[in-house]
Amino acid sequence: MKENALVDFSKQFAVDIVNICTDIKEHRKSNALLNQLLRSGTSVGANIHEANYASSKADFVNKLQIALKECYETDYWLGLFKDTNMILDTEYDKLFSQCSKIRKLLIASITTAKSNKE
Q1: Alpha carbon 65 to chain centroid distance?
Q2: What b/e readout covers 95-105, taking b as 16+ CB neighbours within 10 angstroms?
Q3: Cα–Cα dist 84/32, whole Å
Q4: Could you give the residue ranges of the DSSP H alpha helices within 1-118?
Q5: Global pTM?
Q6: From the CB of residue 49, how many other CB atoms can be counted at a distance below 10 Å?
Q7: 117: DSSP letter
Q8: d(CA 69, CA 17)
Q9: How many whole angstroms separate alpha carbon 64 and alpha carbon 78?
């Protein structure tokens, strides 16, 4: 169930990232940094999805660790966008909350996967 929740949360997060990036590009300032947020924010879910088709436990853990790194990178870009007024505080709060939830689930999943013997 935790993996399904992780997949669902990360996909919704990616959708929200795409939507905010589209909004920024169309209605606010176009910014070269936009692609950084778009790439890292959507990469989280892509790596989680890919982990579900891993060829081994080590591959599974590796994909989740990549997703976790992308989650931390996304957190950085969100903070930068908030601090430069590229996104509203309410937009930041929602996305940061989603990112934090995914990060916690990733950490728990990685810890569990590493502690389980094949």
Answers
A1: 12
A2: beebbebbbeb
A3: 13
A4: 2-27, 34-51, 57-83, 89-115
A5: 0.86
A6: 16
A7: -
A8: 16
A9: 21
Q: Which amino acid is at 46?
A: A
Residue pair 86/28 in contact by the 8 Å Cβ criterion: yes
* Ranges of the chain with pLDDT below 50: 1
**pLDDT tens digits, residue range 64-86?**
999 999 999 999 999 999 998 88
Quote the tokens at residue 28: 């606010």
What Å distances lie between residue 20 and 39, 96, 105, CA to CA? 13, 13, 23
Phi and psi at residue 56, to the nearest 5°: -160, 170
Give me the residue label for tokens 């947020």. Answer: 37
